[in-house]
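This week, think about what follows.
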Amino acid sequence: MIRIFLTGYMGAGKTTLGKAFARQLKLEFIDLDWYIEERFHKTIPQLFAERGEDGFRQLERNMLHEAGEFEDVVISVGGGTPCFFDNMEYMNRQGMTVFLDVNADVLFRRLRVATQQRPILQGKTEEELRGFIDKALESRLPHYRKAKHTFDGSQLENRSQIAESVNRLQQLLGL
């Protein structure tokens, strides 16, 4: 039985690497945000608006515990998931945890072109975006660093880099 949780900031490549990794190991892939949206037939921003952050984070915790019971799975969690309740400790108990460590410069480059797909980033100038990333990373890093493994997620820009990263991650986890 294999259960792997990928954590890290938005834009770190959790979904990109997670999908490719799961495909190579013939495991199921779950993006926790997509899982929540499917179960509730609403987008994450809609759920946030309806329930507020506290209500959403409780829902997210419940869905993490549900998906965290699955076997032979790679689960990509939201950037904030490890920072609330006992989520990081739960993931560490349930399986292997991997923090995709990506520096702020790479995150900024990736997120700068994705502001329309991420409501929390919409309307921010480049300067505001950079400050937002720096501040969020600073507060979240202590949570991310509780993962059992740390993996450099900065090399996920093309198929070749993704394939190489999948192989490196497989070695890191001994799979």
